Amino acid sequence: LSLALYTSSLCAASSAAFHYHDYCVIGAGPSGLQAAYFLQQAGRDYVVFERSHAPGSFFALYPRHRKLISINKQYTGKSNSEFNLRHDWNSLLSHDGRLLFRHYSRDFFPNADAMVHYLEDFASLLKLQVQYNTAIIHVTLERDEQAWNGHYFLLTDQDRQNYKCSSLLVATGMWVPNVVNFPGSEYVEGYETVSINPEDFAGQTVLILGRGNSAFETAENILGVTNFIHMVSRSRVRLSWATHYVGDLRAINNGLLDTYQLKSLDGLLEGDLEDLAIVKDKKGKLHITLRFYLENRNTSAGIDSITLPQDELDNFATRAPYDRIIRCLGWKFDFSIYNRSLRLMPGKGNKKKYPQIKPSYESRGTRGLFILGTASHSVDFRKSAGGFIHGFRYTTRAVHRLLENRHHGVPWPSTVYPITQLTNSIIKRVNEASGLYQMFSVLADIILLRENATAFEYLEEYPIGVLAELEMQTGRKAPNGLFVVIMEYGRNFSGADKDVFYYNRAVGEAQHAWQSNFLHPVIYYYKHLPTEREMKLRPPDWPLPRPDAVHHIVEDFLTDWTAPNAHILPLRRFLENCLSTDLRNFFAESCFFFAFTRQKLPPFCRQGYVGMQGLVGSEGLRRHAVEAGLLEDYTPRDFSGDRTPDSHEGSQDQLLRDHVIPVRPLQHLINAKDE
Amino acid sequence: MSAQKDRWVSSFSFLLFCASSIPGRGSARLLQELSPQEYFSSLQAGRASLAYFSHNASPGAQPFLEQIENSAEALQDYGISVVKVNCPKEDVSRYCGKENALRKAYLFRGNMLIREFPTDALFDVNSVVANVLFALLFNEVKYVETLADLQNIENALKGRSNVVFAYVPATGTAEHRAVMEAAFVYGTVHQFVLTTEAALLRDAGDDEPDVSSARLLFCHCQRATDLAQPCRRTAMGQALTMLNIHRHLKLMGAPLVTEVAEDPQKVSTVHLQLGLPLVFILSQKETYEADRRTAEFVAWQLLGKAGVALLSRDLVDLNILLRSNVALKTPDEGVPVKYLVLEDTDEVITLVEDKSKVGQIQEDEEEEEEDEDEKENNNQDIQDDQVVEAVSRDKKRELPLEQILVLTEETFHSALLETARTVVLFYASWEAVSLAVLRSYTEVADHLKGTQGVLLAQVNCWDWPGVCTKENVTQFPTIKIYEKGERWVMYDGMWGTEELTSFIMLSRVSCPLKLATIEEAEGYLRGEFPSELSSYHHTSVLGVFSTATSEAREAFEEAGNILSGHVTTGLYFEDDALALSRKYAVSPPALLLARSGGRIVEGVALSKQSAQDMVRMIRYELLDIFPEITVQNLPRYLQLRKPFLILFSDGDIGEMESKEMLKLAKGRPWQTFVACWLNLKKTPVGRGVLKVYFATVPSLPLLLWVNPHAGGQVFKFPSEQTITEMNILSWLEKLKAGLEIPSSTLSEEDWKPPLPAYDFLQMMETALPEVPLHTSHRRGDTPAPESPGGDTTVREEPSQQTKAEKGGSPGRDLRGTAPRLAAREKQSKRHSEL
């Protein structure tokens, strides 16, 4: 570390005007710190700029009512730390067991202060290079053929201090409030500043603009003291338990839905805020009208001359005047600091609050600029968890791995296993991997097959959006086909207007696994790496192009996919058929038999028994296998006759190749039926 | 088919002949016309005749006479002549005189009048024949009116003879005639009982009391032993015709279960001759009694529909699957016998009764293997992995784990420091192979109970993935032996109790062990030193070095380290090393190998210098010259990649053979082949190997040349020759020259997937054809699955089903989250449900 500091100071000294770093990270929020952690672990030259004096400045203010809606599960009944991360939505990834969020809060929905505290500890315990009180106010490019990406990033802070970086990681989050301008919008209070003291709302009538979690959170806080609350927004309310998207309205905040549906005065309305206008009467009450009426009225006439909807339509819904109107419309990315040359463009449609990025999280406009954290959510907006800590901690790691390969020649980490471990590797991952689970349909484990399918290479949590570029992005080769392991919800199951509680919503039989609705593992098999074009032409709502074969592991109520017959067996059959081999396990005795009766041995015998690691098995197990009809017992038994004792059996060879049903004596049925 | 029919038809030509009653043909010729005097004088004792008397001109009786004339031929078959007696006009005798008498027919036996029939009882040929026979067979065919009558007859006959009980709605019908004709033939064999009482039919327990049609039941009274029980009855399914009755009686008369001891393809029984299928119940010695009962049970069910045979597999060498338990042979020629695996007797019965299925089987012929797969696709979800299945069958047994310390992420490192040696099994609690090893591991723990300085521990990597990752455990299972938390060795031997125990024991001693005195070195070779291992049978390797050869010594030390656990290595490099080397006639640097407690000590000069070479050399030297091949040690010899010359023996090999083989082997240790022997008592799987080579186990001992590495040919040493070095050598020469014919060749087949997988891609395409899987231009254009109509069907349809299922088997619902979609069309087969 001191060496890194030393070299970086050397650099600074050599280029007098600039402080140079290989990597600059803007923002010491969760994703900035997460990126810093990986850069630090890899021994990279990096710095994190934070405008505030401490990490997580967003969380110091927001959410206003201080309750995080990310789950902080203390107990899962399991000790598997990787599995437990599936139900820990707040921790960042690190090797340090102290830095688990459950050590910072015991609340299921923790207080935001705990997050601030946690981020402070994360930065300090891991000794991350964070430069506080540094607000980057301008970013531009400097062309240079020598630079990693053909240009350097030049950053300027509030004190006109300049920094030069080869790679820029933007982790600024989304902090610019979304504002709607309409006549009278000056009467609207913003979520950022509105009082959080319920007493300030006692006996008032409140209109809330927006229908997200912040709007409902605000409503929840004052629900008990207001006359009533109305909530207006363009879109229908989307409940996260119906959409499986954590960014939609969470059940913890939906008290207002209750009071609305039970006719306790509160209410929900749909309407375009752009058409709205607000007029304030002499008593200070706020009236809703339409922009249309304002445009038609005589200028400079008094308030009384303004037409209100109820003048024409006397049962207009929001004809009652409001005491306060609160805007809770969420946040957008701060585009202002980037020079035009960076071509950092807003997305289209409902993604316009996000910068445009590729599925590799790299900006579409500038090579070497990566968007991390919640601002990178355009990749999986309204689908997966990439906009939230429990999602982007994994995508940040993925970006880091891409960078390691691109700039430092460190290929994507992988493990090579013999083919006999194929089923096991998949079962292990789908049962414990948290990145696959949280970033479902976005991050995938990739299994690259070696020649003749005797071994394979396992890559974890690769962004499937750039599957076509796999070889270039990871430094690994995929000439012999590959498996892609992802998690998926059933298509057409989740959605705003879907009944997710219908009867028979869950599939229990392995043969109908493809109809599974809840999150379940899906394995795609490709004989060749899909091309860019195939990725583009993939069917709508498919995360991947049409594979050569696909397997669904049937959804499981406990998300425990270790059942030998329902989960592992069908998976094995799928893998066997893709690879055209036999992946069964055999006891040493069977391998012995095959060694003398077949010229070729099944992979399990080849890799185990022949390598002197045969599975001898206990006598009890042997007996079970014999009873199951899966192992031949050649032990001579005493017969009264003098016939060869073993003449009853078929060839074991045949027996093992065919599917086997244990021979059941028929006679037990007779007793019942004979009468 | 027609060929068979001909066969069985012709074999009963007699009956056919009996039954043929073509009206008109030749009736004129058969009908005798006699005068009364001629007639009465022609009557022979015991011979029956039917006569009617006519005055030539009585037109009223004409149709009646015609029928009698027509019956003449039919009756003649039963030895009954039909005579028209022409009464002279003036005759006023008993038969000719009265006008009344002319309206009747008279049946005589000899000259005794048995019965007179009114003309209206003889309305057609059937009624004539039926009534005539009924009258004649008065004793053979009992007419009953009540159930009690029937039971009395049955009871009287129990244990002696069978009863044929027929119901006809009326006498004189075709059915009545058929019964009578049958009674004429079988009357002496079975007791015939006839009734026209519909109520009696119902009381007799016929399951289809359709009283408008005739029925025939075969009552098995001969077999009835219990007098209190009514006789078993088998109804005849077909219409009552002479032919059908005959067939039925023939079937009833056949043995219930035929025992066969030949190839089913060659078996022929009355059932096959009669065009019925034959079901074989495959039996084996151990289950014979049960199989016999099964066969009888099935036979009763199939009585009249198919034959049942009990085939003893022990007696017939069938090349069929062990799991097959039923075979079906259809009467059609050229159709192979079909072997099946059925799970209950109902399946056997449906198999036979379901004609279409039989038809299908006949059509299938060659594709049967694949077809079976296709049809029984749900075999896919039946476990065919012996290890997984064995472990899951064992999962309810609690493992004796008290000797094994369970480690966690927190306790792992501290535990390693506590004992000199900690053996750690890293496993995953869901992984079958590691669970199988865990079972052996508990046995190891039991063996090592009380051994000082060794602690057995386990880590479940499913619970503690962190430790496993840190310890670089990438595969399950992994066993590592840690020494005071410093060094560790990975276990790389067989996953067996014995091998692991030995490894742990041997690795307790430092390897190589530095020996200080020549006494220690001698003791080491005798296996007495170190004392920890004295009671433990093992091979020792002693490296003898002069003080000068430090390079070789270091390499040996490293080699010893690598071999730690597999073999004990000792090191002696004191000044008097020369004395030791002289004793065993080697010059240092050299190795001394001590087998069987130091009784055999071999010296090997050390020429190789690198540790790896030394390891290889020591491993090689440790191989036996003429080993007994076992499941556990085969891999070591397989690695030589040489053909095997194996002597199969049932028990220990004879001294002579052993000596000759050893002589043969000693000359050429593994240059061209591995000479070894196999004890079938110890390695019973060898029998399986022999069965593959020769279909049966030939007489032993048996010398084979097997080359699994190239060509896979198996040659058998001629059994008439004695096993001597000379004979074997000349035989091997012949082999080399290609003069011998291989007895067998090992299959070259690849290891393909045992069964197909679920083709979800195809299912998706079939179920959702509107979802384009190939292209993307139809975004948002997937109406069916999204439309509310589509949803409603899914939502509403199942309610009743769900209830029914809930009532039926509680707990099934809980297989998914709660209810199940689509799965209700078909319940899949699981082991737990079979």
Automatic annotation (TrEMBL), chain A:
GO BP term, example: ERAD pathway
GO molecular function, one term: flavin adenine dinucleotide binding
InterPro entries per the UniProt record, alphabetical: Auxin_biosynth/cation_transpt (IPR050982), FAD/NAD-bd_sf (IPR036188)
Domain of life where this protein originates: Eukaryota
A GO CC annotation given for this chain: endoplasmic reticulum lumen
Cofactor section: FAD
Keywords per UniProt: Endoplasmic reticulum, FAD, Flavoprotein, Glycoprotein, Oxidoreductase, Signal
Function: Probable flavoprotein which may function in endoplasmic reticulum associated degradation (ERAD). May bind non-native proteins in the endoplasmic reticulum and target them to the ubiquitination machinery for subsequent degradation.
Description of how the protein assembles with itself and partners: Interacts with SEL1L. May interact with OS9 and DNAJC10. Interacts with TXNDC16.
Stated family: Belongs to the FOXRED2 family.
Record-given protein name: FAD-dependent oxidoreductase domain-containing protein 2
Organism per entry: Dromas ardeola
UniProtKB/TrEMBL annotation, chain B:
Domain TXNDC16 N-terminal positions: 31-133
Pfam families associated with the record: Thioredoxin (PF00085), Thioredoxin_6 (PF13848), TXNDC16_2nd (PF24509), TXNDC16_3rd (PF24510), TXNDC16_N (PF24508)
Signal recorded as keyword: yes
Keyword terms, alphabetized: Signal
TXNDC16 third thioredoxin-like domain span: 256-347
Tree of life domain: Eukaryota
Entries under InterPro entries matching the protein: Thioredoxin-like_sf, Thioredoxin_domain, TXNDC16, TXNDC16_2nd, TXNDC16_3rd, TXNDC16_N
Full protein name: TXD16 protein
